[in-house]
Amino acid sequence: MTAKILIVTGDAAESLEVLYPYQRLREEGYDVHIAAPARKQLQFVVHDFEPGFDTYTEKPGYTWPADLAFAEVDPGQYAALVIPGGRAPEYLRNDPELRKICKSFFDADKPVAQICHGPLLTAAVDGLRGRRVTAYPALEPDMQAAGATFQDAEAVVDGALVSSRAWPDHPAWMREFLTVLRAKAPVT
């Protein structure tokens, strides 16, 4: 049976940070499902950098259907979890169903890939304490407050947790995550 991977996201997630791992993991042979607060058409965004701006800009991105609502997810059916960034993690971390899902992956030491603002969600379930992580650089104080050691790198691996700064780091992030996945949840 093919291993299943769960991507948890919502409206205002960064388009590339959802769709790149979705397609890359499917290409590798995994069965990938996207879960959100409700089964609906999600509206992603595009974060980019413009000359003269102090931070990234946000534009409308792709739309994509959620396969499942968080309340429908059985974490035991999934081998790994992917948490994209964008603004979605800021409000998703308040969802009690999603917090239970995320905590179950950490409790079972299953592979978790997080990128950009995704670590806001894992911090909310106390999944970062004592770990080495990276995230969008502006989140360094948040990562430290969550008890993590922040590293400004393309990808940081700490056991089954693989983190990355943002979509420009996708090749390093997925390369490291696939190394963890192949060891813990190989495609059959």
TrEMBL record:
Pfam families: DJ-1_PfpI. Residues 4-178 form the DJ-1/PfpI domain. Gene3D superfamilies: 3.40.50.880. It comes from the Bacteria. InterPro entries: C56_PfpI-like, Class_I_gatase-like, DJ-1/PfpI. SUPFAM superfamilies: Class I glutamine amidotransferase-like. Belongs to the peptidase C56 family. This is DJ-1/PfpI family protein. It comes from Streptomyces guryensis.
